[in-house]
Design brief:
By secondary structure, the protein is α+β, with helices and mostly antiparallel strands. The chain has five helices and four strands.
C-alpha cells in the first residue's frame, strides 16, 4: 500500500492540517482522526470539528461514527470536487511540494506536517492578511476558555 495524506481544513480560519497515513484505508483515516481527537481533546472535538465533509471513497465508510460525538458528517457526490472547494485548493497547494505522481513514501510524517505548516504561514487576503494559525489559535483559546467558564 502506498502512503497517502489525509487533509483537514478548518473552514472559518482556513487552518490546514495534513496527516500522512500508511494507506487509503478506513483504519488509516480512523487513526488520523484519533490523532486529532488526542491533539485537541476528545471532550472538545465536536466544538472544534463541528462538521466533516468527505468523498464517498471506501476509506471514509466508517466516518459516520463521529456523528456520535456531535460532529455532522457530509459526503460529497461522486466527481463533484466543487463540493469540497477549500480542500481542493489545499490539495493544489500541497502539489507545490509533492508533484502529482510522486510517491508519498519519500516523505516522513514530519515532512508532511512541515509542508502544512509552511502553507499555513501564508497570510490570506480573505482573513484580513492574518495567517490561519493566528486565527485558529484564537479560536482554540475561545473553545478551551468557554469550557472553564461553564
Amino acid at each position: 500500500r502506498e502512503a497517502v495524506v489525509v487533509i483537514a481544513g478548518e473552514k472559518v480560519t482556513r487552518n490546514y492540517i495534513a496527516i500522512r497515513i500508511p494507506g487509503r484505508t478506513c483504519a488509516g483515516v480512523e487513526a488520523a482522526l484519533a490523532e486529532l481527537q488526542e491533539q485537541y481533546g476528545a471532550e472538545y472535538f465536536s466544538q472544534i470539528c463541528k462538521t466533516m465533509t468527505a468523498e464517498n471513497g471506501p476509506e471514509f465508510e466508517n466516518l459516520s461514527q463521529f456523528e456520535n460525538l456531535d460532529t455532522k458528517i457530509y459526503f460529497t457526490h461522486p466527481y463533484s470536487s466543487w463540493e469540497r472547494a477549500q480542500n481542493e485548493r489545499h490539495n493544489g497547494l500541497l502539489r507545490d511540494f509533492i508533484p502529482k505522481g510522486m510517491s508519498m513514501e519519500r516523505f516522513s510524517d514530519e515532512d508532511i506536517l512541515n509542508m502544512a505548516d509552511t502553507l499555513n504561514q501564508r497570510p490570506r487576503r480573505v482573513l484580513g492578511y492574518h495567517t490561519p494559525p493566528e486565527l485558529f489559535d484564537a479560536f482554540l483559546d475561545e473553545v478551551y476558555a468557554s469550557e472553564c467558564v461553564s
